[in-house]
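Schema walk-through. Below, the input block comes first and the output block second. Nothing else is stored per chain. Lengths vary across the set, and this one has 288 residues.
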Amino acid sequence: MSQASPSYILVTGAGGKTGRHVIAALIARGVRVRAWVHNPSKAPTWPAHQVDIFAGDLMEPELWVRALAGVDAVYHIPPNMFSHEEALGELAIASAARAGVSRFVYHSVLHPQAEAMPHHWHKMRVEERLFASRLAYTILQPTAYMQNLAAAWPAIRDQGVLRQPYSPESRISLVHLADVAEAAVRVLLEPGHDFAIYELVGTPPLSQHDVAAVFARVLGRPVRSERLDLDTWSRRAQGLSPYARETLLKMFQYYDQYGLTGNPNVLQWLLGRPPTPLQAYIRTLASS
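--- output ---
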């Protein structure tokens, strides 16, 4: 039986797009949050009476002791494309267990079993460590965000072309980030989710031709899908670490061969409503 709903929650990776959405959803529910950010100068402006900003390196063990003081639960979002994710996960789990938190929710990824994508495989190893812990855990496995399409929007808007660094035939399921945040909050605050693993998928598998067709319907003009050459993508990708660049290239190669397919039923059950459709996100993107 789950314990009472947590009243003070630590969110790691709070400054990223996932953390911001999760914290906004927690604020809307009146929950007090400790937001762990790497750089406090880049933190959003949150209500001071509801959000405490905690800054520092996630890999520093002594900081975990301070960050966990007084909190009831943890929502752990590791840094994106982080080469030390397994070590960080082990540190987070061990620290939370020592602190006696009532709930540990891990932000994983759809199909962590895919060893060909290193950032997926590292999350699988963290999940394995949770199984061996004494924590009441929940694992969330979101698919690719609809919001990732924002990078392709200028070419869609100006040229009518959706370019992705994998085949237009690649079938990928998407999810709206706000739906992920809503599901996270439900899992954190409501009983009955201990020791569960939930795939968070908002759409059936869509080829890139399918995605382009949705853009075309919303915009009322033709949009086609094209493959973006990996060398071209690599030249354009700026500010990435060597690990992130190599890992993303491996992900694109995996998508090209296998896609990333899932089923929306679990998310619909968690939300108590159908997940946000791709059309709704595209309308928002086109009006921004």
